[in-house]
Amino acid sequence: MVADMPGSPRTLVVMRHAKAEQAGPTDFERELAERGRQDGAAAGGWLAARGILPDVALVSAATRARQTFTSVAQGAQWTLEPTLDRGLYAADPDTALDLVRSLGDDVSTVVVIGHNPTMAYLATILDDGEGDAAVGMTGAFPTSAVAVFTYDGTWGDLAGGGARVTAYHVGRA
User: Are 30 and 62 in contact (CB under 8 A)?
Assistant: First the structure.
């Protein structure tokens, strides 16, 4: 989906990676557990049922986040190639928000897949407190958690409290 004009409604999806194995050669290289693959696909199916088709996917380059995107994309039947970002692995919420702010005005829908606590903090920071769906988001942001936001400005102007939670879901197979 391409935005009609710079101030047209935009969709931002913030997702924590799916369930990973407890160990790997390094933390960065930990792979998804089988449950994580299934939960990721379930989250993708949920996103597809809501008509979410991203223009851009910003994904941590860590193995479990890349594999989460693959599972979500399969479940949603997306053909999009992700933009992998090593910085999202250890990013703080401001850094993750800066990545979103750097998007062009031609992008109307973006999916960000990363790690906690960053994804939970990012979702909390963005929330304007007005959406009914935010109630489900309080507390934990478990693996495969997905928060969907709408935003009525340019990405470059996105600020804390500037987006409305329209849906929240935890992908489970």
Answer: yes
Q: What single-letter amino acid sits at 85?
A: D
SS3 breakdown of the chain: % helix, strand, coil, rounded to 5? 35, 25, 40
Q: Is the residue at 143 inside a domain?
A: yes
Q: Cβ neighbours of residue 159 under 8 Å, at least 6 residues apart? A: none
Task: Give residue 135's domain range.
Answer: 10-170
Domain count, the chain: 1
Before 117, cis peptide (omega within 30)? yes
Q: Radius of gyration over alpha carbons of the chain, in Å?
A: 15
Q: CA-CA-CA-CA torsion for 73, 74, 80, 86, nearest 10 degrees?
A: 50
103-147 pLDDT, tens per residue? 999 999 999 999 999 999 999 999 988 876 665 666 678 999 999
**pTM of the predicted model as reported, rounded to 2 decimal places:** 0.92
CATH value at residue 133: 3.40.50.1240
Quote the CA–CA distance of 32 and 64 in Å, as a whole number: 5
- Model confidence at 101, pLDDT cuts 50, 70, 90, reads very high
In this structure, is the dihedral angle defined by the CA atoms of residues 95, 96, 99 and 104, taken in order, positive or negative? negative
